[in-house]
Amino acid sequence: MLRIAVVGATGAVGRECLALLDGGIVPVEQVVPVGSARSVGRDLGTELALSLPMAELVTLDDLDPRGLDVAIFSAGAEVSGREAERLASAGVLVVDNSSAFRMRPDVPLVVPQVNPGVLDDRPASNLVANPNCSTIQLVRALHPVHELASLESVVVATYQAASGGGVHGLRELTEGSRAILDDPRAQGAPGGRFGQPLPFNLVPEIGLQDDTGLTHEERKLVREPRKILGLPDLRVSATAVRVPVFDCHSEAVHIRLREPVTTASVEAALAATPGLRVYRRSENPSYPMPRTVFARPEDRALVHVGRIRVEPEDDRAVALWVVADNLWVGAALNALQIVELATKNGWLG
């Protein structure tokens, strides 16, 4: 039985962590919700109708690491960079959802369905990094295709939901959409969570651009799959777009392989992979969509892959359409599956 602290418990990902813990994904003795000073006094157990054994909500300054087994950080890179190593040095396993530690050589970057072997032993740093939300669904779709015919290069365009901007991002989309429906000439003001107004719009920039023109989100999509898949020379090109969708990220993925394949062989490889749902042309619907993926808990826990096709003139070129819940598959669920894997491996709990 584990004592688990959820840092950022009042945010979008933190709340999903609590809900998943309530579902029994790992054995829990007690959950300690951690939030800001203005959140102290909130009863998240009652708010979220949880049956978990919950401690009172505390701030990070008041969190006592003694007796804690795990701390799941979902409060952003600044908070993680400032506080995560303090808990790790006290013997707490820290699973961090931010970008603070992902590319550090001594910190495993883990998707349990893809590279579980990196957690055969407990990391000396006591830190485990959760990948970027878009990276997780991408590598889970890429991995079986790589096993089939070896990846040479990947081109991906992401269509990322407002929930990637947290509770404030969802509110911004809701209120901005209402304003435009009331007055179709309303434009909205730049700024907010997405840099530009998101309602009825597309914003092809997620994070700041560097000198090459890549945004922060695109740099993550280029670098993280290489580390997770163990392919340091994999060529990856990424374009990240924020779209006016509440939940679930979508990706158009174009893959170049080292060996020829057929559409049927790619479909079979994906369909044989646990945790993936494959959509074929003969089905209705024949492709996944954010609204349908988000509709049921059993679908929120899966990576959905459709529009699977091999280019007619090139039997080493494959296209996929990948949709997954960014708050579950892309964050909270992956973090808790890391805890589950560590427990199964016998070095936690």
Sum this structure up briefly.
The chain is α/β, with parallel strands linked by helices and 349 residues long.
Care to describe what's here?
This protein has about 350 residues and is α/β, with parallel strands linked by helices. It contains ten helices and eleven strands. The protein has helices at about 10-20, 45, 75-90, 135-150, 165-180, 215-230, 265-270, 290-295, 295-300, 330-345, and strands spanning about 1-5, 30-35, 70-75, 95, 125-130, 150-160, 235-240, 250-255, 275-280, 305-310, 315-325. The strands form two sheets. A six-stranded mixed β-sheet has the order 7-6-8-11-10-9. A five-stranded parallel β-sheet has the order 2-1-3-4-5, sandwiched between helices. Helix 1 links the parallel strand 1 and strand 2 (about 30-35). Helix 4 (about 135-150) packs across helix 6 and helix 4 (about 135-150) crosses helix 10 (about 330-345). The radius of gyration is 20 Å and the shape is globular. The protein starts with a strand and ends in a 5-residue tail after the last helix. The mean pLDDT is about 95.
Number of helices: 10
Distance N to C terminus? 6 Å
Strand content: 15-25%
Radius of gyration: 20 Å
Q: Which structural category fits the helices and strands?
A: alpha/beta
The gross shape turns out to be globular
Range of helix content:
25-40%
- What's the main sheet like? 6 strands, mixed
Summarize the topology.
Blueprint (H helix, E strand, L loop, with lengths): L1 E6 L4 H11 L5 E7 L9 H4 L22 E4 L3 H13 L3 E4 L30 E3 L3 H17 L1 E10 L5 H17 L33 H14 L5 E8 L6 E9 L5 H9 L4 E3 L11 H5 L2 H4 L2 E8 L6 E8 L3 H17 L5
Parallel strand pairs: 1-2, 1-3, 3-4, 4-5, 6-7, 9-10
Antiparallel strand pairs: 6-8, 8-11, 10-11
Helix pairs in contact: 1-10, 4-6, 4-7, 4-10
